[in-house]
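## retry 2 of 3
previous attempt timed out at serialization; input unchanged, resubmitting
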Amino acid sequence: MTDQTITSVSRESRIFKPSAEFKSQANLGSYEAYRRLYTESVNAPDKFWSKQAKEHLVWRKPFKKTLQWKAPHAKWFTGGKLNVSENCLDKHLGTARENKAAIIFEGEPGDVRTITYRQLHFHVCRLAHILENSGIKAGDRIAIYMPMIPEAMIAMLACARIGAVHTVIFGGFSAEAIKDRLNDCQAKLVITADGGWRRGKIVELKANVDKALYGAPSVQSVLVVKRTGNEVNMVEGRDTWWKEAWEGAPNKHTAKAFDSEHPLFILYTSGSTGKPKGVLHTSAGYLLGAKLSSHYIFDLKENDRYFCSADIGWITGHSYVVYGLLSNGSTVFLYEGAPNQPEPDRFWQMIDRHGITILYTAPTAIRAFMRWGDNYVTRHKLDSLRLLGSVGEPISPEAWRWYHKMIGKGRCPIVDTWWQTETGSIMIAPIPGAIPAKPGSATLPFFGIVPKIVDEKGKEVPRGTDGKMIITKPWPSMLRTLWGDDERFKKAYFGDYPGVYFTGDGAKQDKDGYFWISGRVDDVLNISGHRIGTAEVEAALATHPSVAEAAAVGRPDDLKGSALVVFVSLKTGIAADDALKEALRAHIGREIGSFAKPDAVRFAAGLPKTRSGKIMRRILKEIAAGREVKGDTSTLEDFSVITALQQED
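## retry succeeded, writing output
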């Protein structure tokens, strides 16, 4: 291991306590209650998790043992049997929830559909029969490559119902990326759509699947939803329209019971550096983590209308659009398109139109909203909102304060959540009725999670000192392995610090025990012996009044190790000139120190992002170093951004 200690420079001292009104109705309404439950969860984990599993999940056969742990492999609730789809649907039938909206969908063109729990159960049962009639058996892998439409959720739940293992492939991936994933998991069937709507244009999903299948011999059949009506090629004997398969299928289906450790899904992490990793999650532990964290961290109530803007192809879409929310009987709002289509106030329109009460989105989206201007926000009421959430990367104090003031009108708690594809569910976050928030901090760990900040040798460092974050105890929703590559699993997550999970993130704990995540340790800049997290540099830049968004990367430097290059998008109306470059360099010098002044400031009309809004820093590193942009760029939202950056000097 190389020395990659991260220097943290976050500065935010204000504490935002939950209001008395919010605390009075909260699922967990005091810090004392949180401490009591947390203490029990780490001191007596078997007792705690056994109780939660019995209370929150519907079992067909009771489990015998809460945890079997032989690092790095965990088995939770062994001997027990259940069905994940039944836990999300059937248990609500015959209750007041059966006629409640499970999904409210709005397409980018403006079409709206509402599906109740009873109707969703009907749809999932039908698809379960269709899959079984296609020869799919428990354990078979099914790939789902879909737009953000209800059929994507129906497909996931139908797989879970029959014990098939789904792998959802983000709708922005190229044919080559699809092929790699199909071959890695040996998928037998693909569920897709003719296309999806994005920024007023059709994304041709079926055409991408067709290209991928030239090199994916394991796939025997393709099921196609008609969404956009664009012309597609249907291969006889392989391809079937969803609607045609639908007709005549029975609408009742008895869910099969599966072992607690039965595989539920494989989710591939980005393949931009080497072969994609197929993270495997299993049934009972994953579902418990998603359900319990949703209940407490989003403070779910029967009348909530919850909107998570994450794509179904990422872990956030799995845990906090589908499984965590439906197992709680919540109403999920699903939106197909871009946040600025046709105008930058699309989110705010939809929140008012549908009475959304909870919004869970990414800091990169929040920064985009800031850049587009407050006037797009102030023309809407947003008075239905009661809770806000942040996910995907560290949120800067600047963005946190804007989100709190402009979107939450100063009254909505913000849950800044830290977790990963591999963790399955939220690990660190402020439970909104119980834990005071500090802008920029993910705050305190969720039940059963024991993070520590350590040095290179695994020794815990004092509070206020930067280091690497590990998780020292197993938790129910943790990944079980990497599909087909257990050695890589051991090395990637348990190789650096034997017996404990290494998150790959740098962090520190403050005097109150709050965790401040500074970003991936592979996003660390080593500048003349100083190591600084890119998230920290970007947060410092965000405090300058001219900056809308910024990304910091390193380029190789013989003298310093790394030279700091910052790419900056300016707010509307701000002129880019050499004087501003020097002002920004001086600003970083003031915020962090003179050693951190960037060697280059490059202005950009836009930064390269995936369709889900994540900045592709790998591309920026290559541009900063003057190299040709290589690797997978299939998830890039706007290819013209790269050309513009390469031309800018």
